[in-house]
Design brief:
Layout lengths: L2 E2 L6 E2 L4 E4 H7 L7 E9 L5 E10 L3 E9 L2 E15 L5 E6 L3 E2 L4 E2 L3 E2 L1 E4 L14 E2 L3 H21 L20 H56 L1
Parallel strand pairs: 1-9, 2-13
Antiparallel strand pairs: 3-12, 4-5, 5-6, 6-7, 7-8, 8-11, 9-10
The chain binds zinc ion.
Length: 236
């Protein structure tokens, strides 16, 4: 099965494609025999859009994932992921994905029960956070990273005599009187800073969405338990 090698450098979950079983559940993709589709759009530094999609097919034991690797790679992947169904506290059944990651160095299969599996942007397979050694970026850290990245972008923009940060940074023009070599160095530095700012912004937005989703889930759980208590009291 799909195996992985432990990486020295960690990536954040926010920068990966996430296969979310709660989303699939809401969309009806987990009904027996159902076909589903997950779709992502990413915009790169030069404004070009990269799309990725995964088709799913529900089987008796889980789901089959079908997708192309994209980015010029012709390979198509097709593999099965088991699903576990467990009763939840407020009634009903909650589905979980079983991570198919196989650690070839230790000859063990992960089998963790999770709600999300992740694929690295240039990776092949969907595995859990632990198999991919992914980390979360906290709101505070991402906020600081965004501030620092913005400051650096604006510092280099001033050197390039830009009044505002351009919408298409690759098309910056050389200021009058600036030596060509100096301009090329500054432009490269600007592109790096701008990309870092965009990355930090994406992380910040993802962290904020995660925080809000948790808040909504907690509110819904509270309302459900409150309604259940009221129903119990009315029945007494
Ligand atoms: Zn795993």
């Amino acid at each position: 099965m799909a195996s992985f090698t432990r990486r020295k450098h960690s990536t954040t979950v926010e920068s990966c494609y996430a296969l979310d079983i709660n989303y699939m559940h809401r969309e009806g993709s987990l009904q027996q025999g159902a076909h589903g589709m997950m779709y992502w759009i990413r915009t790169d530094f030069f404004g070009a859009e990269h799309t990725a999609s995964v088709s799913t097919y529900r089987t008796a034991r889980g789901i089959i994932l079908i997708y192309a690797l994209g980015d010029g790679r012709p390979q198509h992947l097709f593999y099965h992921i088991d699903i576990a169904q467990l009763p939840c506290n407020y009634g009903g059944i909650r589905p979980y994905l079983i991570c198919p990651g196989h650690d070839s160095a230790r000859a063990v299969t992960c089998n963790r029960r999770v709600t999300k599996l992740y694929k690295l942007p240039m990776g092949q397979y969907f595995f859990c956070r632990q198999c991919h050694s992914l980390t979360y970026t906290s709101c505070n850290t991402s906020g600081n990273a965004l501030k620092i990245a913005r400051r650096q972008t604006r510092r280099v923009a001033r050197k390039l005599q830009l009044r505002t940060v351009p919408s298409r940074p690759a098309l910056i023009e050389r200021p009058k009187g600036m030596h060509k070599k100096t301009f090329e160095l500054l432009k490269d530095e600007f592109l790096i800073c701008y990309q870092a700012e965009q990355d930090a912004l994406s992380v910040r937005i993802a962290a904020e969405c995660t925080r809000l989703n948790k808040l909504v889930a907690a509110s819904e759980a509270f309302i459900r338990s409150h309604l259940a208590r009221n129903a119990d009291n009315a029945g007494d």
